[in-house]
Each structure stands twice: as C-alpha cells, then as structure tokens.
Design a protein that fits this description.
The chain is mainly alpha-helical and 244 residues long. It is built from twelve helices and four strands, in the order ββαααβααααβααααα. It is 60% helix and 8% strand.
C-alpha cells in the first residue's frame, strides 16, 4: 500500500497509508447514494406541487448545492470524514501536518463539481490513480490527501487487551476514565506504528504522546516510572479495567 510521510507541527515525521482510487470511489458511492435518496424523496414531495420542468431543474440545482454542503459540513465537523469515508475508513488530512481548515474543506467540496459531478468522476479517478499522493484536483488545490485509517482505527477494546493479560489488575492511573475509546485507539495506533517501523520519528511520536497524556492526567514526572512505551501500555490497560 502506498503511503505519504507527513511532517507534523512538532517536527515528527509520520507515515500514513494513502487511500486507493477504489476505496475513494466506494466512499463517494455511499455518499452519492445518500444524496440520491434525499433527492428522490424531495422530488416526490414537491412533484405534486411543482410540475414545470424549470422548477424541477431549480430543485436539482438546490439538491446539488445541498450535496456540496453535505460534504463540506460533514468533513469539517467530523474530522475529515463524510459518512461514506467513515464506513470505508478514510480521512482527509493536510500534507503540511496542520489540521485542515474550513477553507480547505470548502475548496474540496467546490471542486467536486469539475472533479466528479460535471465529468462523471473521470478526472478524479485518473488523477488519484496516477498522482504522487493519490490526490484529485480538489486535494491538490487544498493541499490535502485522503488516508486509509481503518487498519489503525477499527481495533476493538478486546484487541487492546491483548497487550497484556494480568489477573487482579490494580489500575495505577484512575484519571484515564476521562479519555474516550477513540483516544485509546490513537494510543494503540502510535504503539503499533513504532513497533512496525521502529524508526526515530515513530519513537519520538510515542514519547510526545506519553508526555501529552501525562500532562492531561496532571501527573508529575516523578509519578511516571516507566518508559514512554510502557507508560502508554499501562494507560491502555487502566482504561480497559476501569471502563469495561
């Protein structure tokens, strides 16, 4: 699987697997299905009131606008994911390591018109299949890429428990209950990437994540007597024991 290296704002290089053309087409198909269902329902509701072709054409344009708005607002408020992307396991991120801005998501939504809607998606598929970072035109202009996240974010808590298996476990950091399942998935993802690649950048990412979690738990450095990797493992197990 192709990947892209993102330099984060903390100067840490992290590799992300790029979404393939097939997975992006699949996610768009799901989103388009939602759009067509909404279009069909609205057409049925209004067809008895408005019978002129011009009026129905205006409705079609309005629904197209709603489709672009759907993409814009879903990606902006769902951390770069529409419903289709969430189901397939895709996410939009910026190439420069910063969080995508509303302007980035708006650009991507507007460029759906030339990329997909007015061209049957042919330019988008060709660019994604042949480009360096699997970007369509909207991605190129916005400076974004679409990554595959399902490999790293669909772990269950039962899988997290495989990190260690101890009976009569006594949690060390009860404050972990303030975190969410998604937070813990990020922790496991960081650990897995470090173990998989074993390079300096991923070890540094684990260290920085450990520091951030320790800060959120309001822990003094003297209270953390583990290596960053071991500390994150303990945090994961504490979370499981206290929230399951």
């Amino acid at each position: 699987m192709e990947s892209v290296t993102i330099q984060t704002t903390q100067n840490v290089s992290i590799d992300y697997p790029l979404a393939s053309a097939g997975s992006r087409v699949g996610s768009f198909f799901i989103d388009a299905t939602i759009y067509l269902i909404a279009y069909g329902i609205l057409t049925v509701l209004l067809s008895s009131l408005i019978n002129s072709f011009d009026a129905l054409a205006i409705i079609g344009l309005f629904i197209t606008f709603l489709f672009l708005a759907y993409y814009f607002f879903l990606e902006m408020f769902s951390r770069g994911q529409t419903l289709g992307k969430r189901i397939i396991g895709l996410r939009v991120i910026r190439l420069d390591g910063r969080d995508p801005t509303p302007a980035d998501f708006l650009t991507r939504a507007i460029f759906l018109l030339p990329d997909v809607i007015f061209s049957l998606g042919i330019p988008a598929v060709l660019l994604i299949a042949s480009g360096r970072y699997n970007q369509r035109l909207g991605d190129i202009v916005a400076g974004t890429v679409v990554i595959q996240t399902s490999i790293a974010t669909t772990f269950t808590l039962e899988e997290i428990m495989a990190i260690t298996n101890r009976e009569d476990y006594d949690p060390e950091f009860p404050g972990v209950q303030r975190f969410t399942n998604n937070d813990m998935m990020i922790v496991k993802r960081a650990l897995q990437r470090m173990r998989r690649y074993g390079n300096t950048a991923h070890r540094q990412a684990v260290r920085q994540l450990a520091v951030k979690i320790a800060d959120q738990l309001e822990l003094d450095k003297k209270e953390v007597k583990y290596t960053p990797e071991k500390f994150l493992e303990v945090v994961l197990m504490d979370f499981i024991v206290l929230t399951r």
